[in-house]
Design a protein that fits this description.
238 residues; mainly alpha; Fumarate Reductase Cytochrome B subunit; transmembrane; transport; Hydrogenase_cytochrome
């Protein structure tokens, strides 16, 4: 029987970021869909305007969007300065990363019939996949803040005029790139559906790897570790 070794894959900080992102995403999608098209009743006879249903949805959407963006910034920092691992190295298009990316993709397509890479660490395919997710979050940030400041038509806010001015400064470029406010709105909504598609594949792929690789990948986000068969060279070193 081959020996099994425990390999640490996620730190406590990374796991906290993961679950905060999951919770924020659920709230952002639910409230965002309501803002775009109110779809549920208030279940009380009073008019919705008296209970500030839309206002509360907008408030929660804005708060979790900020949390979303903070976690994205933290992940960006960890990409380069984490003492645990530095994912940016997997994004460098050198021969080693390109070959690994292709082999992981072939492994998925062939249902694990071909596996010529080391699955104990984060591979280039998964790193690129997660990088796309965080780039989508950044685009959601800029388009979302542009939609938010567009509603502040007076040019001021409860915390002063500096806030709308700053938002215009950093987000007005989206109006030119995407063809006005309606274009920004479409991109913001479209990114949400792309992120939902990303989440579906992410969950599927983690379950897929757990079943085919039999290394407990799905438990990484809970315990931070996975279990892999010990290689011959590892045994010799011991």
């Amino acid at each position: 029987m081959p020996k099994i070794k425990k390999v640490k894959r996620m730190t406590v900080t990374m796991r906290i970021i993961h679950w905060v992102t999951v919770l924020s995403m659920i709230i952002a999608v639910v409230t965002g869909l309501y803002i775009g098209h109110p779809y549920y009743q208030t279940f009380i006879a009073d008019p919705a305007v008296d209970k500030y249903v839309m206002a509360w949805n907008r408030w929660w959407h804005f708060i979790v969007a900020i949390i979303f963006d903070v976690t994205a910034i933290l992940v960006g920092y960890l990409y380069f300065f984490s003492r645990f691992e530095k994912p940016y190295k997997k994004l460098i298009p050198n021969k080693q990363n390109l070959v690994e990316f292709w082999e992981v993709l072939l492994n998925l397509i062939t249902l694990n019939r071909r596996k010529k890479f080391d699955s104990t660490h984060s591979d280039s395919f998964n790193t690129v996949f997660f990088t796309v997710f965080h780039l989508l979050l950044v685009l959601m940030l800029f388009t979302g803040l542009q939609l938010y400041v567009h509603a502040l038509a007076s040019g001021t806010s409860s915390i002063g005029a500096w806030w709308p001015a700053m938002l215009h400064l950093v987000t007005d470029w989206t109006l030119y790139v995407f063809g006005g406010n309606m274009g920004v709105r479409y991109v913001h909504h479209f990114c949400m559906y792309l992120i939902l598609m990303w989440v579906i594949f992410h969950i599927y792929y983690q379950v897929w790897r757990t079943i085919f690789w039999q290394e407990g990948d799905i438990a990484i986000v809970v315990g931070g570790s996975k279990f892999v068969k010990e290689k011959e060279e590892d045994k010799k070193q011991d």
